[in-house]
């Protein structure tokens, strides 16, 4: 039988892997949306040309979410912010899914659904099962 400590360590490692992947995707997407010219993005995503301000706003939110999902946990400075960043990313993804569905762009939602599952895993794991204690507190798995 697998010990509880081994399960906890496995979950902790899985969470770090998912956090790193999610951070890379959100930071990369955020930078891409923030620095790529609108006409270039509009050629790929028609909505980008129609809503350039929404595009830039979601780029900033993506960037903040990507940083927030890993940095507080990594530094152990206010690690509870990682939980809030995961929740914020989940809300953003649900809004993106709703936005694309309302425009008849259901084909654009599978990636968002996968990312939603990943950020909800981080939210659940870091809030309920494998939280990271702030710097200076004993018993941290970080």
Task: Describe this structure as you would to a colleague.
This protein has helices at 4-35, 38-44, 46-50, 52-68, 71-75, 80-102, 110-129. With 142 residues, the chain is an all-alpha fold. The protein has one domain (8-129).
Give a quick set of tags describing it.
142 residues, mainly alpha, 7 helices, elongated, DoxX family protein, DoxX, transmembrane, transmembrane helix, membrane
How many domains comprise the coordinates?
1
Low-confidence residue ranges: none
Could you tell me the strand content as a percent range? under 5%
Q: What is the terminal separation in angstroms?
A: 25 Å
What share of the residues lie within helices? over 70%
Radius of gyration: 17 Å
Question: What profile does the largest beta sheet have?
Answer: none
From N to C, what is the helix and strand string? HHHHHHH
Assembly state (oligomeric): single chain
pLDDT averaged residue by residue: 93
């Amino acid at each position: 039988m697998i010990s509880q400590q081994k399960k906890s360590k496995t979950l902790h490692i899985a969470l770090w892997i998912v956090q790193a992947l999610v951070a890379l995707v959100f930071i990369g997407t955020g930078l891409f949306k923030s620095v790529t010219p609108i006409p270039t993005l509009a050629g790929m995503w028609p909505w980008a040309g129609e809503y350039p301000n929404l595009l830039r706003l979601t780029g900033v939110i993506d960037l903040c979410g990507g940083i927030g999902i890993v940095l507080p946990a990594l530094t152990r400075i206010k690690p509870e912010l990682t939980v809030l960043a995961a929740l914020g990313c989940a809300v953003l993804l649900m809004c993106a899914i709703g936005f694309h569905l309302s425009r008849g762009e259901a084909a654009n939602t599978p990636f968002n659904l996968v990312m939603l599952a990943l950020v909800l895993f981080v939210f659940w794991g870091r809030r309920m099962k494998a939280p990271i204690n702030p710097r200076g507190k004993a018993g941290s798995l970080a």
